[in-house]
Structures are given as structure tokens and as C-alpha cells.
Amino acid sequence: MGCSSCGSRTKDGKPAGCASNGDCSTGGCNRLNVYDWLVDLPYSAQQDPFKTVEVSFKNGSRKSFYRNSNNVDCYTGDNIVVEAATGGYDIGRISLSGELVRLQMKKRNVPIDAELPRIMRVATERDLDRFEEVKKKEYETMLMARVISRRLDLQMKVGDVEYQGDGRKATFYYTADERIDFRELIKMLAREFRVKIEMRQIGARQEASRIGGIGSCGRELCCSTWLTKFKSVSTTAARYQNLAINQSKLSGQCGRLKCCLNYELNMYMEALKDFPKNADFIETKRGRARLIKTDIFKRKMWYSLIETNTVHSLSVDRVNEIIEMNTRGEAPETLVSAQTITAFIPKIGFEDGVGEIELDSLAPIEKNKRRRNRKRRSGGGNANKTTAKNRQQNPSNKTTQPKTNKPKPRPKPKRKPNNPSSKDTTKNTSEVNKARSSKPNPKPNPNPNQENKEGTAKKRNNRRRRNNRPKKTDE
């Protein structure tokens, strides 16, 4: 990650940075960094500055201590030329200087009077250009080394390659599950690249720290930013924290369990001291209960009765009390403690409508009751809805309907009965025929199909009215 000055651009369009040409001199782009908060501390006349400095190589993936015995005028962030352990020279950047180096040496168990390699000079432009040319070969060298190892059928993986500053030596970092005989590999690599070869085996976590990456949390990997010591991580840490044993979620970039599983383990171990052991099953007079869930920081345990399949939330103290009763050969009446209430609650599974519930469990019941009352007052809800089929079967069932402002329909005129028995039988049929013949003939209808349509529509309406009439029942 670069600092805010990397956002500015020069005239050539390149990032300005801190004038370090690729790496941040302030240390924001380096890994495993230590902030030098004593850099501005003035030295007194009686105190000489500490002459040992910390130098980082390849963006902080490797750091070592060097003695400034030649009194070279260099400061934190300067590129310097140092002695190499196997001969030649190497180029690195001063990551820490001053009194903090003394503390870092003490932390890494390096004696202050130990023999350390020396600083030769401040790197010149020619040294830096040579070093940039060498760094460009590292990726191609790593790919070629993988091809050669595969050709020799070696069960190993070359993860990184680092060239020395003068280009005379190359260090190959590899991972392997078994011991590898790479004598033939070294001969082929030396013949191919014409440099001194050094093979160094590292673990999967060290490989991830050298390569770097982004974790599932969205931040840079801890091993590549600040973590220096790798402790063993087991699935027991996940079980103590009530995490699902899912290999894909618990594994990091290196393929091993995540290091962050150990960060909060001590807190969970401290909180689990009061929890009972061997509490998977407890006995009550209503049956046996099985543990299904545990909340460590809320100090609650959820038990389910096997016979009734009901779930109860218990405190840790209540569970300890029940376990003590079971060891004495006794069993409580219910799982809940005495600090509960007894209420009449129909239709929730208790016998005779009476049962013991916790105060927290009353809240959803009262909430649902208020919701149902609100729906009844507003005219909504499923309780007031009846289908047309039910209305036909039970016409006497009156349902409450919401009031509306629609106008009432006009009453329909009463139809005269078509019963021939209701007519006057005293009249003769001949007189009726004469009266009909005396009426004037109606005008001929220009559209006879319209009359047929009106007649069929009236018949259809009459048929619907007859079907919708309530049937008479014998009372």
C-alpha cells in the first residue's frame, strides 16, 4: 500500500511517490515495518548514535542487521551497498536506525556485540541500474526452475527467487512435503543461469508471507505485514469458538488453518471456565433434553426436549443446578428455573392450557395478539374473509365487511308470479282471445336479431336470480 503522495503524477505521467523510484521511502510500501518514532530524537554530546542499522531486502521479505563501522553518512530510507555473507555485495534499504534497532536486536535474540556484516557505501545510480536489471530476471528464472524440477520429477514447488545485488548469486525458495535430493537440479540450474545457486526450503506460511495477498477479511495478509512468528493452529481452536468445521472457510491463502483463529482463543477459554462439562444431555421428569446451541458471551445454553421437541433457553447457573440434581439421582419438573411465571396460554402445546414460560418468551405472543386485533379493527385479515362457496352453503352466516362510501343499489321491482293458478279462472278463454285480438298489432321490428338478444339476456338474468335465492329449509 502506498501513501497519499503516490496519487500525484509527474510531467511524464509516472507516480511521484517519495522520490524513491518505485518504493515508498516512508516505509508504507514495505512489509514487517517498524515505525521509527525516535528518528527526531536529538543526541547529546555524551551519547553517540547507535551504529547498527536494520536493512530490508526485496520489499521487506528479508531483513538483517548491519554494522556501520565505516561511519557512512546514511539515514532511514537510503539505498546502501552491504557485504554479502557468501562474497560480493548486496543492495538494500535502511528500514530502521537509531535506538529502536537495539530493541529489535534484543527481541530477535541477537547480541549487541555480535559480529555483523558491514555497510560499504551509499548506492550510486550505476548500482541501482544494475540491481533493476537483475530484479527483472527473477520471474523468468522462477518459471524456468519449475520446468526443470518437473522434468526431473521432483515433488517440490519453487515459490520465489531472489537475486543478489551484484547478480552473482540466486536464492531459490521452495516448499516440499518430503526430503528432496536436488543435487542434479542444482547442476542444471547453474548450467542454465551461470550463477551461484542456493536452495532454501520454507513452509507454506512463509511462502504466503513472501508472495503476499488479500485475505477473506479484505485486508493484507497478517504474515506479510506484521506477523513474524507462526504458531501451530488446530481445529480445537475453531471448536472452542463454536465455528463450523468447514475446511474452505477456515483455510487461508497458504492452504493451512488461518492464523487469526488463535487471536481470540484466550478470551474464549476464559469465558468457558464457568460452563459445565459433559452437559450434552440432562434429565427431567418430562423427558431427556439435548444440547443444541451454546452462546458463550451471553452465557446461555439451548436444550431441546426429545419427546415433545420443544426448545428452552437456560442460563449456565440453571444447567449446573440441573446437573447437580441428576448426579444425586433427582430430576426437576421442568427445564426452566423458579424465576418464571405461570399463565394460561391456550394452543401452544401445554397440557390443560397451563404451563411455565420465561418472561422473554411472552413478547412474541403479545406482539402477535396485538397484530391480530389491529387487523380486526381495520377490517383486514384472513379471519373476516369467506369464499363464495361458503356463502352459498351457509347463507345465514353474516360476516363483517368494512364500511364503504359506495351508494346503495336501487331496489328491484317485484316480479309478478307466472303461476297460471293465480289468474282469474272465471274468465273464458274465448274472451281472453278476443281481448288479445282487439289490441293493435305492434310495429314490425327492423332488426329481429336485437329482439332475440334482449330476450335471451332477460332469460339469463332470471336464471341467475333463481340460482342465487336462498333455499328453504325445514325448521
Question: What is the string of SSEs from the N terminus onward?
Answer: EEEEHEHHEEHEHHHHHEEEEHEEHHHH
Largest beta sheet, briefly? Answer: 5 strands, antiparallel
Mean pLDDT: 76
* Uncertain runs: 1-5, 340-363, 381-389, 396-400, 420-427
| Cα-atom radius of gyration | 46 Å
Q: Could you give the order of strands across the largest sheet?
A: 2-1-4-3-5
Number of helices: 14
Helix content: 25-40%
How much beta, percentage-wise? 15-25%
How would you classify the helix and strand content by structural class?
alpha+beta
DSSP, total strands: 14
N-end to C-end Cα span: 91 Å
Globally, the shape reads elongated
Structure keywords:
GMP Synthetase, Chain A, domain 3; about 475 residues; four-stranded antiparallel beta sheet; five-stranded antiparallel beta sheet; 14 helices; alpha+beta; 14 strands; disordered N terminus
Question: In a nutshell, what does this entry contain?
Answer:
29% of the residues lie in helices and 17% in strands.
Q: What does this protein structure show overall?
A:
The protein is α+β, with helices and mostly antiparallel strands and about 475 residues long. Among the domains are: about 30-125, no CATH class; about 135-200, 2-Layer Sandwich (GMP Synthetase, Chain A, domain 3); about 210-270, no CATH class; about 275-340, no CATH class. About 30% of the residues lie in helices and about 15% in strands. It has helices at about 100-105, 125-135, 140-150, 185-195, 205-210, 220-225, 235-240, 245-250, 265-270, 315-325, 360-380, 390-395, 430-440, 450-470; strands at about 50-55, 60-65, 80-85, 90-95, 120, 155-165, 170-175, 195-200, 280-285, 285-295, 300-305, 310-315, 340-345, 355. The strands form four sheets. The chain has a five-stranded antiparallel sheet. Helix 3 packs across helix 4 (about 185-195). The protein is elongated, with a radius of gyration of 46 Å. The two termini are about 90 Å apart.
